[in-house]
Specification:
By secondary structure, the protein is mainly α. Helix content is about 75%, strand content about 0%. Helix 1 packs antiparallel against helix 2. The longest helix has about 35 residues. Bound molecules: zinc ion. Zinc ion binds next to helix 4. InterPro entries: DnaK_N (IPR037187), Znf_DskA_TraR (IPR000962), Znf_DskA_TraR_CS (IPR020458).
Length: about 120
């Protein structure tokens, strides 16, 4: 079980990561907007612009998803349920939390979950 000090450290990691993602998402959105606003004079340019904004969109979506997971983890810290597996109620190993601070499941449950998916 992660102790209070470890949870505090993980919370800082989560908050830093959250800030980074928010900045990245804002930057992606800005570059998509500037691409949309840029003049496209021929089809080649248009294809370039579309594929870039498409990629940016995918990156932004992944980050939005991670952001949700991070916010969820911060809520669990506040509720005091952080670091406990949502499937089996066992403590999640500190090593796993350090690698993935927003982990919801312990390693064995995560493996079962991934196999079932
Ligand atoms: Zn579990």
């Amino acid at each position: 079980m992660a102790n209070a000090k470890q949870i505090e450290e993980l919370k800082q990691t989560l908050l830093e990561r959250k800030e980074l993602i928010i900045n990245n998402i804002n930057e992606s959105r800005e570059s998509i907007n500037s691409l949309k606003n840029s003049e496209c004079n021929d089809e080649f340019d248009y294809a370039e612009v579309s594929s870039d904004s498409f990629k940016e969109g995918i990156i932004a979506n992944q980050q939005v998803k991670e952001l949700e997971e991070i916010e969820d983890a911060i809520k669990r810290i506040q509720k005091g349920t952080y670091g406990v597996c949502e499937m089996c109620d066992e403590s999640i190993a500190i090593g796993r939390l350090r690698a993935k601070p927003f982990a919801k499941f312990c390693t064995p449950c995560r493996e079962i979950y991934e196999v079932e998916k």
